Amino acid sequence: MPFKRRPALATAAVAAVLALSATACGSSDDSADAAKASASSAQQGADDIKLPDNLNDKLKNLGVDLDEWKNGAWNKWDRDDWLREAGDFINPIIKGLWKPDRMRDAQEPEEQVDDSDIADDQGVTDPDPQPVKAQEVDSPYSSRVPYAGKVFFDGPEGSMVCSATVVEDPAHPGKSNMVWTAGHCVHAGKGGGWYKNLMFVPSYNDSGKSAAALENATKEELAPKGVWWADWAQTSSQWIDSGAATGGKGAPYDFAVMHVKPEVSGGKSLEETVGGALPVDFNAPAVKSIDEITATGYPAAPPFDGQKMNQCADQPGRLSLDAKQPTMYRIGCTMTAGSSGGGWVANGADGKPALVSNTSIGPSNATWLAGPHLGPEAKGVYNAVSKKFAGQ
Description:
This protein is α+β, with helices and mostly antiparallel strands. Helices cover 15% and strands 20% of the residues. The chain has 9 helices and 14 strands. A 6-stranded antiparallel beta barrel has the order 2-3-4-7-6-5. A hairpin with a 2-residue loop joins strand 2 (148-155) and strand 3.
C-alpha cells in the first residue's frame, strides 16, 4: 500500500492523500504578520519568563541576531543555513505571532511516496486492519482528554500543525512541562532541519465549535489553557539522519519530546494548568497482549475540518517497514491530516492508561494509522529532556 503525507488542505482533490506527517502549509500572507510580531529580547511574554542566559550568544554563534529573528528573520529558509543538528534547536518566543486566524489556517502540502516502503516486511506485518471510524470527542475536551492538544510551527512551506500529548516529567512530579509528539512535527529529517516557532495549545477549541463558528474566535476561545512555546525539542538521531518527508523512511523512530513555557505566565506548570499528564510506557507489551489502543488527534483533511478533537480505538496489529528496524503498532482509523503526533494510549500492567506510541504514518485511503514502538531510543530522548530541566 503506498505511503505519502496526508495534506490538511480543505479541497476534495486531496481528500484521500496519506500523511506521513500531519503538518501543513499556511498562507504566504503570514510573513507580513510575522514581521510585525515582536517581543522584548529580555522577555518571553512575562517578566518572570526569561530567555535562556546563553540564547543571545548561541544565536550569534549561529549567525542570527535575536532582535532580527523576532522581527521576521526567522522566516528565511536558506537550506544551507537551516539549523539541523541535535543541539541547534532555538525557539525564542515571539509574543502575538500565533493569532487565531494563523492557527485556524495551518495546513499541509501534498507529497508523493514510494510504493516500495513496505516491501521488506519479512513476514511480520499483519493483515490490514478494518477501518475504524474516528469519533469526535465530547466537549469540553479538557474534561475528557485534558492532556491532548495541537502543536503549531513554521516550515519552508508556511504554517503547519500536528497533534501532541502532555506527559509526565520524572524530574518534576505533578508539575510537568513536557509534551510528546512525532519527530516529523519538530524536525524535517534527512536534508532538513528544526522547524521554527513551535508551540503547543492544550485543549485547542475546547468547546468543540465548528470551523464556521470559529471564524471570529478569539485567541482565548481557541487556546483556553494558554499558548505554550517550546524552549527545547529533541527527537531521535535516526529521524534526523534518515527521516523523509515522503514514504515511511524513519517512521519507526518518529517520536519527539518538547519542553515548553507559557507565552504569558500564570505561575503554574503545564500539567497543573491542564489537570493531568500521562506516564510513558517504554516496555509496552507485544501487540497480541494489548486489547485496545486509543489514538487521539485533530484530523484536518476532509471530511474533517481540523478544529475538532477525534479518537479511534482498536486492537493493534504489526507493521514492518524494514526488517532491521523495530516493528510498528498499527490500528484501524479514519483520522486524516493533523492527527500526526497525537498520543496512543493503552492500559498498562497496573490497569492505568499510559502513552505507548504516537501517530506517524497511514495509507492514502485513510483506513489505518501506524505509530512507533517506544523502546530504548525513545526512553533516551525522554530522559534527556527531563534531565536538561531537572534543576529548574
